[in-house]
Design goal:
Order of helices and strands: EHEHHEHEHEHEHEHEHEEEEEEEEEEHHE
Largest sheet: 8 strands, parallel
Shape: elongated
Bound molecules: pyridoxal-5'-phosphate
Strand content: 25-35%
CATH class of the largest domain: Alpha Beta
Strand order of the largest sheet: 2-9-8-7-6-5-4-3
CATH topology of the largest domain: TIM Barrel
CATH superfamily of the largest domain: Alanine racemase
Length: about 375
């Protein structure tokens, strides 16, 4: 293997348990495994979480849900960002409905004599997915389809949960509560919270279910701003990303390294060519900026990140040899680089770094 991730099953379970512990037994934890479980491998992550006792999983698309069903997962699966389709009903995938106009479509797909359950997403002020219909309109549409469809859940999503300088989350919660109050009955699952409102213990938002994604993988981001309460959730990254050193060479002073000669050796140096490039998911913007762990220490990336390889300065690691493992993301004897640090250097967010790890990177699961 030239480039691979190592995902710790134990860490995934420990993160899931830490979340369960924090929210307590009355709040259902629905881990989000969309986008191939944020790059960690949706099937294996889902199996691990199902074995740890999760009753729900959430994905974005029907295809993601079907992949889990084909792999034999039998938990409830919430599909958060797709359209009604017959496969959803056939494979017991629970749709989040974003638009009241989709209700007749879903009702038509519902087999006669059964009620198909769905979760209704309302836009409480994020301005993205979710109906913006008035509470009265929602109540009327829900009632009109009640013979074929069961409103099992009502949900919304926060735009700025980590920003305690604004009142946006409180305003969203108020609008959401007004919607809830207009319904003839409270659905089984009321849910609004992703990682941040869980980690910062915004208990008023937890409802009956929470939808953590990032925290399952060991991250809480962004860091809260303003008058934020203390963070109550401790989680640790479950994924390490590694690659082999393909070769090592000496470069004389003044010589350029890589595309565009973005770097020029200021003195004679030893460089290592690492078997991972932007096609593997290393952000191109890490050129001349990023670092990796080699020989137990942090060393800089030098020159541009290429499609298949990157170059690092091994001058301070004389013991390095071809075939050695370099850590792009992870921890080695107390030295670590995480997705948040990489994201900061690359001008992006940790979610994007994890989701950016490409399909050609091998997946290894460890205990
Ligand atoms: C992705 C997503 C989540 C999970 O978000 P994290 O910040 O990763 O916890 C929860 N709810 C919805 C609607 C999402 O799209």
């Amino acid at each position: 293997m030239r480039c691979w991730i190592e995902v710790s099953r134990g860490r995934l379970v420990a993160n899931f348990e830490a979340i369960r512990q924090l929210v307590g037994p009355r709040v259902e934890v629905c881990p989000v495994v969309k986008a191939d479980a944020y790059g960690h491998g949706a099937v294996e992550v889902s199996r691990v979480l199902a074995a740890a006792g999760t009753r729900w999983l959430a994905v974005s698309s029907l295809d993601e849900g079907l992949e889990l069903r084909e792999a034999g997962l039998s938990t409830r699966i919430l599909v958060m960002a797709d359209l009604p389709a017959a496969e959803a009903v056939r494979h017991n995938l629970t749709l989040a409905i974003h638009d009241l106009a989709s209700l007749p479509d879903l009702a038509r797909l519902s087999p006669t004599g059964t009620r198909t359950s769905y979760h209704l997403k309302t836009d409480s002020g994020m301005g993205r997915l979710g109906t913006r219909a008035t509470p009265t309109e929602v109540a009327r549409a829900v009632a009109a389809h009640a013979s074929a469809l069961e409103l099992e859940g009502i949900m919304t999503h926060f735009a700025s949960a980590a920003n305690y300088d604004t009142g946006q989350t409180e305003a969203q919660l108020a609008r959401f509560s007004a919607m809830l109050a207009a319904l003839p009955a409270r659905p089984r699952y009321v849910h609004t919270s992703a990682t941040v409102p869980v980690a910062y213990a915004r208990r008023s938002a937890w409802g009956d279910m929470i939808r953590p994604g990032h925290a399952i993988y060991g991250y809480v981001s962004p860091i809260a701003r303003g008058q934020a309460p203390a963070r109550e959730l401790e989680v640790r990254p479950a994924l390490a990303w590694k690659a082999r050193l393909l070769t090592i060479k000496d470069i004389p002073a003044g010589e350029p390294i890589g595309y565009g000669a973005m770097y020029r050796a200021p003195a004679p140096m030893r460089i290592g060519i690492v078997a991972a490039g932007y096609a593997d998911g290393i952000p191109h913007r890490l050129g001349n900026k990023g670092s990796v762990i080699a020989g137990g220490r942090i060393v800089p990336m030098v020159g541009a990140v290429s499609m298949d390889v990157s170059t690092i300065d091994l001058t301070t690691v004389p013991s390095a040899k071809p075939g050695d493992t370099v850590t792009l993301l992870g921890e080695v004897n107390g030295v670590s680089i995480d997705a948040q640090q990489i994201a900061r250097l690359a001008g992006t967010i940790s979610y994007s770094v994890l989701c950016g790890i490409s399909a050609r990177v091998a997946h290894v699961y460890v205990d």
